[in-house]
TrEMBL record:
<dbReference type="InterPro" id="IPR034904">
    <property type="entry name" value="FSCA_dom_sf"/>
</dbReference>
<dbReference type="Pfam" id="PF01883">
    <property type="entry name" value="FeS_assembly_P"/>
</dbReference>
<dbReference type="InterPro" id="IPR052339">
    <property type="entry name" value="Fe-S_Maturation_MIP18"/>
</dbReference>
<protein>
    <recommendedName>
        <fullName>MIP18 family-like domain-containing protein</fullName>
    </recommendedName>
</protein>
<dbReference type="InterPro" id="IPR002744">
    <property type="entry name" value="MIP18-like"/>
</dbReference>
<feature type="domain" description="MIP18 family-like">
    <location>
        <begin position="11"/>
        <end position="77"/>
    </location>
</feature>
């Protein structure tokens, strides 16, 4: 069974990889947009990414989910994580308040 430290280190690596996933419409990564709500790891290091999208019915939902899996495939190839699931949720609803300062600046929004 993995230690809490191993879980936290793996979650940090997963989040770092997710910063490579760019929202195609906004041009900013999903982490800084605040779309990633959580990372769950089971005892075999299978990963569930809980995230949302900026709008319900987003036509790029499938693309973003595929991009998340592709971004995490490197960690899978290294044997650091197992299976990856992406769980899209709508509660709590996403708002601009979830965005990082970096994302707001990149999109020209007030901080």
């Amino acid at each position: 069974m993995p230690t809490e430290e191993e879980r936290n280190e793996t979650k940090e690596r997963v989040m770092a990889q997710l910063e490579e996933v760019i929202d195609p419409e906004l041009g900013v990564d999903i982490v800084n947009l605040g779309l990633v709500y959580g990372i769950e790891l089971d005892d075999e290091f299978n990963v569930t990414v809980e995230m949302t999208l900026t709008t319900m019915g987003c036509p790029l939902a499938g693309t973003i989910q595929a991009d998340v899996k592709r971004a995490l495939s490197e960690l899978q190839e290294l044997g650091e994580i197992g299976k990856v699931d992406v769980n899209i949720v709508w509660s709590p609803p996403w708002s601009k308040d979830r965005m990082s300062r970096y994302a707001k600046i990149a999109l020209g929004l007030p901080d």
